[in-house]
Specification:
Helix content is 35%, strand content 27%. With 178 residues, the chain is α+β, with helices and mostly antiparallel strands. α1 packs antiparallel against α2. It is globular.
């Protein structure tokens, strides 16, 4: 499972401002248990180093969490856009973690945070806004394409914590941007 995670991390476009893996946690048996390892790195470490840190605790009933950052365009209160580090969480679940929940949720999950980075529903569309939204979505698409081409992923699912389908929200917003 960690070799697959390494392949995913090697495709990730790390933030130029906060490069590398910034946090690693190892979770035994279920999310209700205390972590057996938590380490923060500043500056971040390479994907290879991160996997080596977690490799000492390989078990089929463990989960592994890696936090990193990538740069996304974000508007401030005044509508000025900046390229800022945004957190991304990578979760790898062993086959027996939480009684095999990875069969339903997937062995590797990537949490990109709020979908607002990609849809910006509350932002008025201008030429600049459209370009920034397009850049963020393009970064997401390029990363998922790289994963598909360079890893042995057998499936993928793009979802959001909102009640709506993230792919449908992206398509709807991008149609307004086009």
């Amino acid at each position: 499972m960690l070799p697959h995670m390494l392949a995913v991390l090697q495709q990730f476009p790390f933030s130029e401002q906060r490069p590398g893996v910034a946090y690693i946690a190892v979770q035994p048996v279920s999310w209700n248990e205390a972590s057996v390892l938590e380490r923060r790195f500043s500056p971040g470490i390479s994907p290879e180093e991160a996997v080596v840190v977690a490799a000492d605790l390989i078990h089929d009933d463990y989960a592994y969490v890696f936090d990193a950052y990538w740069d996304l365009w974000t508007p401030d209160k005044n509508g000025h856009w900046t390229l800022a580090p945004s957190p991304v969480k990578f979760i790898v679940q062993g086959e027996e973690f939480e009684e095999g929940v990875q069969e339903e949720t997937g062995q590797i999950q990537i949490d990109f945070g709020l979908d607002s980075f990609f849809v910006q529903e509350n932002v008025r569309l201008t030429d600049e806004t459209e370009a920034k939204i397009r850049d963020n979505v393009l970064k997401l698409i390029e990363f998922t394409k790289k994963l598909e081409m360079k890893t042995r992923a057998t499936s993928r699912r793009l979802w959001s914590e909102s009640d709506e389908s993230l792919p449908q929200k992206l398509i709807a917003r991008l149609q307004r941007v086009q």
